[in-house]
Amino acid sequence: MAFGDRKQEPVNKQRPVPATSSIYRKGAISLFGMKAVYRNLRIKYKLIMLISIMMFVIGAITYAMQQYTFEAYDKELYMQSASALNNASLGIENELKRIEKLSFNLSTDSATDNSIQRYLSVIKQSDSSYDNFLYGNRLRDRILFLAGLDRYILSTQIIDAYGREYASGNKMITFTAERIRQIKAETAKEYGGITYIFPDYKDTALIAGREIRSINGLNLDYLGNVAIRINVDQLFRDFTNGVFNKDAHFAIMDGNRVVYSLNDSLPLEDVAVGLTGKRGFQIVTIADKKFFMTYVPSSYTSWNYVNLIPYNDIFKDIESAKRTVFFVYGLLYLLVILFALGFSRGITGPIERLNSKMKRVQLGHFDYVEEPGDRELSKDEAGQLHRNFRIMVQRIEELINENYIKQLAIKDTEFKALQAQINPHFLYNTLESINWSAKIAGQSQISLMVESLGFLLRSSISNKEPLITIKEELEIIGHYFTIQKIRFEERLEFEQSIPQELQHFLIPKLSLQPLVENAINYGLEQMTGTCRIAINAMIQGHFLYVTVSDNGPGIDAAMLEKLRSGEVKPKGTGIGLRNIDERIKLLFNDDYGIELVSQPGEGTTVKLRLPMKVREYDV
User: Residue of 54, 128, 248, 442 with fewest CB within 10 Å of its CB?
Assistant: First the structure.
């Protein structure tokens, strides 16, 4: 009785089935159905299922734990670093705004009577050296009065319309002519507005500069430039001291240009690309070291404030968390492997049993031995292999018994066929005997013809290579021509003008000899005069061209088309133009082949287009 069946009873006497029993049966049937589906799945689907479960479980748990740990730490570190950057940038920018206001006061001197503008105007318009000296001293005194001895200002320098400097400060320098041109060029872009000029190799100070233009009238006449040299080291250290740890690297970037850096050894140009106006954090590699980089934009300029902390130093505090992650990962990996081993036994067991049966057949035992469990094989690949193997072994045993007598008859027939075969060496030896007999009898022409025929026979049978050199093909043609020359005597002439350096190129075997034979068959035999056959070779572009031409009667257009298509069977060897053309295309490709040119009364030319191919040991 099948699972779940029950005896048939009259309708009015059926017993009610309890609800719990019905649920149990449905669950058992469902479980049995799932097992049956799994058993009948293909092996590759079982393996895919196994690998998918392993990778999903391990990857999902590991990824979730790592993401939770590292992202939380990264965000906390970013918040602290960004807060420190904001505080430092706020203080720096307040000082820069104060210096910008100071530069404005210097350029206008609106607090008094525009003394600086008046002095610069007199210097610009006066040609007197005394006036220039006098007002230059007054200008320096006025700079000292307005700029004073500011903590963050190295020197304040005014450049008149003629490029002369008037400076005051703690650490004054004299600008080079190149530096003055740079200051004028950069400040001219802002037309009186503030601009910052980056340090160069001679002056490490950051310059806050602007043009000085006359405020009297509406012409805004150019009077000079003011340049305030800022002590960036002192300014940035004051506002970053105590904000960042000793391993942090603070820098200010303008695009990919470094405005200032506490660590000049770090090349920051590449990592700063695309940061302008952005806020965030990244993990970057600089000089083969990883850094945690935080960046915030300036609210005052186009700069970006950047802070870099060594990556390894950051995560040494969470090494214990990483070890925990790896421990959990390893534990889960072992559990999944153990599960996979048990999972795979259902796949490998039938295959191992089949392997043992194959070994038994390998030893010559073709009687199939059925093992316990063979009748309950599943329908997957392993079960199909068992059934197919059983059928195959039984069929082999039948064929052995059925074909034993037939094989004996075939062996006997093959033996008789071998006895009837002619050994090619017998032909060579026979031709050699004829050759010596002809020599003894003084028949030199017969001897020469036999030797040439022997060479042709040996070449056509012994050499199995599809490609031979032009030189080897010419040897075959030479022996063939020797035989034909004895036959036709002075009616046949042959010449070849192939340079020595082209004779090592490879061509299909017996591709020229049939063309010479065709020239004799279609040319010499149809004319009364002397037939001249010529073979030439040349290189044009990337191709090797070999031509066989004759001075025969030529071929009309209709006949020419039949020869090209293979409709007309050739005389002699039976190797036609189409056969040679197809062999060339098979050996190389469709870019190569044969071209036939002929007109009645003008002879025939066959041109072979071939690649410049040589043997490897001839290179």
Answer: 442
Q: Are strands 531-540 and 492-497 parallel, antiparallel or unpaired?
A: parallel
Q: Is the dihedral of CA 438, 440, 441, 445 positive or negative?
A: positive
User: CA nearest 471: which of 432, 433, 493, 501?
Assistant: 501
Kindly give the pairing relationship between strand 153-160 and strand 165-169. Answer: antiparallel
Please give the backbone phi and psi of residue 260, each rounded to the nearest 5 degrees, phi first: -160, 145
**What phi and psi, each to the nearest 5 degrees, are found at residue 34?**
-65, -40
Structure tokens at 376: 């309950």
Among residues 130, 91, 353, which one has the least CA distance to residue 237?
91
CB 256 within 8 A of CB 273: yes
Q: What pTM did the predictor assign?
A: 0.42
Q: What percent of the chain is predicted at pLDDT more than 90?
A: 5
Closest to 302 (Cα-Cα) out of 190, 395, 380, 402: 190
pLDDT, tens only, 422-445: 445 455 556 656 766 666 766 677
pLDDT in tens, 132-141: 788 888 888 8
Angle between helices 444-462 and 470-488 (to 10 degrees): 150
Could you tell me if 109 and 142 are in contact, meaning their C-beta atoms sit under 8 angstroms apart?
A: yes
* Cβ burial 186-203 (10 Å sphere, 16+ → b, else e): bbeeeebebbbbbbeeeb
